[in-house]
Specification:
By secondary structure, the chain is an alpha+beta fold. The protein contains 11 helices and 4 strands; from the N terminus they run βαααααααββαβααα. The chain starts with 5 loop residues before the first strand and ends with a helix. Its main location: membrane.
């Protein structure tokens, strides 16, 4: 028999500063998308005229980047939609989904470029070094502007980070195209074009993997970076008066800035449950940046005990909680009810009939 108190801090307010940061990121991505889209057209034309794989590969990369940037911009728009009965946490997670998708797209781009480079190495084609150099220099300037526009944004925003990664890939592609053009103009050695394309692709691949890994971790409800889940239970038990045990601790992130947690707190018989809940929520917010927390208060046995074939249900991050015998627990609740039933006056604590064991 236990008592539970579910306290939900279900605020979706990110604060004025957070909203301002998101608005700034959205504008930055819009500018980068416009720059990328316009120069993509020029680079396609330059690649076709010069016959450069580096330019065409970079133009293809920029096309996908333009689509990725446009999708990232759309993600910001969708994320502003309020929470509803179907999506109770709101739409912020759409940004993470877009970031994850952008990372996978970069994997695909890398694969295509490597295959085409292999074909070009096996059967070299003529390249107009002068045209290639002119277009590549223009692309470098555009990408530098776009890079610095995005680089000044929120570093924790995975959606912005994915957009920045796309632009960084374009910038490196432009640098490689310039290098390849100079080598071709000076030596006439055209294999440098596909070779440098592969080098750039591998650099992009490393960063794409990091983006997919980080976004995937959030989508899989992994513990947020910087939050040591195993330290939450012992820390709260040690620091908050009245807390006997913390278990069933689960921590995840809606986005890197929106962290959430659920936990069970077994408290002493005489403890003030609402005060304990407030203290736990305050500690989670101040120490771990967890703004949304659901705390289940228990006296004695865990509410989940006996579920799932007689074992504790769920992943218990603190296995030190009580395994009291049911009969002893029943006697304790009976004694507590009889004791409280006889109390009168203003000092007598209010106990809900169902929680004390009395008939409803």
């Amino acid at each position: 028999m236990n008592s539970t108190e579910h306290r939900h801090d279900h605020s979706h307010s990110h604060g004025h500063s957070h909203d301002h940061a998101e608005g700034a990121s959205e504008r930055r991505i819009a500018v980068a998308a416009a720059l990328t889209g316009l120069f993509m057209l020029a680079e396609i034309a330059g690649g076709l005229i010069s016959g450069s794989l580096a330019l065409l590969a970079d133009a293809g990369h920029m096309f996908v980047d333009f689509a990725g940037l446009a999708l990232a911009y759309l993600a910001f728009r969708i994320a502003r939609r309020p929470a509803d009965a179907r999506n109770t946490y709101g739409y912020d997670r759409f940004q993470i989904l877009v970031a994850y998708s952008n990372g996978l797209v970069l994997f695909g781009i890398t694969f295509v470029i490597v295959i085409e480079a292999w074909r070009r190495l096996a059967a070299p084609e003529p390249v107009l070094g002068g045209t290639m150099l002119a277009v590549a220099i223009g692309g470098l300037l555009v990408n530098i502007v776009a890079f610095f526009v995005l680089h000044g944004g929120d570093k924790e925003d995975l959606n912005l980070r994915g957009a920045l990664l796309h632009v960084m890939g374009d910038l490196l592609g432009s640098v490689a195209a310039i290098g390849a053009a100079l080598v071709i103009l000076w030596t006439g050695w055209t294999p440098i074009d596909p070779i440098l394309s592969v080098v750039v692709s591998l650099l992009i691949l490393v960063n794409a993997w990091r983006l997919v890994r980080d976004a995937g971790h959030i989508l899989l409800e992994g513990a947020p970076a910087g939050v040591e889940t195993g330290a939450i239970g012992p820390g709260l038990t040690r620091e908050i008066a009245g807390v006997v045990d913390i278990h069933h601790v689960h921590v995840w992130a809606i986005t890197p800035k929106r962290k959430a947690a659920t936990l069970h707190a077994r408290i002493a018989e005489e403890a003030d449950a609402p005060a304990v809940v407030r203290s736990i929520k305050l500690a989670l917010s101040e120490r771990f940046g967890i703004s949304h927390a659901t705390v289940e208060i228990e006296y004695g046995l865990c509410a989940d005990r006996g579920l799932a074939g007689g074992h504790e249900h769920g992943h218990d991050h603190d296995h030190g909680h009580s395994h009291d015998h049911p009969h002893a627990e029943a006697h304790r609740h009976k004694d507590r009810h009889e004791h409280r039933h006889g109390e009168t006056g203003r000092d007598a604590p209010h106990v809900h009939p169902r929680l004390s064991g009395a008939p409803a």
